[in-house]
Amino acid sequence: MNSCLRGGVRLPAFPVFTWRTTAWNHWFLSLGLRHSAAFKLWFSCGALFGILAVLSSVLVLVWQMLLSLCRIFASAGSSQLNSSIVTPIVPGLNVPWSDVFYVMLGTSLAAGFHEVGHALGAGSEGVPVHHVAVFAFGAFVALSEDALELLSPWRLLRIYCAGVWHNAVVRELGLFPVSPPSEVRASCA
């Protein structure tokens, strides 16, 4: 059972602190509609990326399952099958405790950017945002279900894939090293 406190803070039955606001609803819708053509092109690329990502993920998971089955049935001396494609992040085991704050911060920022993608995608399709909620290491946007039901499957896919598309673009931008100009590097030496 939820109890709503002042300021939009909710304390659900399970212990997760959630902050909820409607302050950005109009902004997402008006920005999305103002630049609708550009956003529709952008999120169409995202929908195509999403389709490819789902197919790739299924292939990776099937491959991982086959490797795991081979490990089970293969001889114990085979080191060739010990490589893993998917590795969970376990603080203290494969991530130092000193880096946990940065992992949580990065995860929170990525989740926020992901949800902004959904909100802008919805705005470009004329779907209002009911509210935005932020909780520990995540966020979500609640969209109008009535407006979503009126959209074609392709328009829905643009909204649904908008979040992962934004995360993929940020990931690609992160591959480019950020370095100061040569004059600054020379003065620091």
From TrEMBL:
- The answer to whether the entry has keyword Magnesium is no
**Which InterPro entries does this one have?**
MBTPS2 (IPR001193), Peptidase_M50 (IPR008915)
Do you know which Pfam families this protein is assigned to?
A: Peptidase_M50
Span of domain Peptidase M50: 102-170
Any one GO molecular function term: metalloendopeptidase activity
Q: Which keywords are on file for this protein?
A: Membrane, Transmembrane, Transmembrane helix
What is the membrane topology here? Multi-pass membrane protein
Query: What GO terms in the biological process aspect are recorded for it?
Result: proteolysis
Residues passing through the membrane, by range: 41-63
Protein name per the record: Endopeptidase S2P
Highest taxon, organism lineage:
Eukaryota
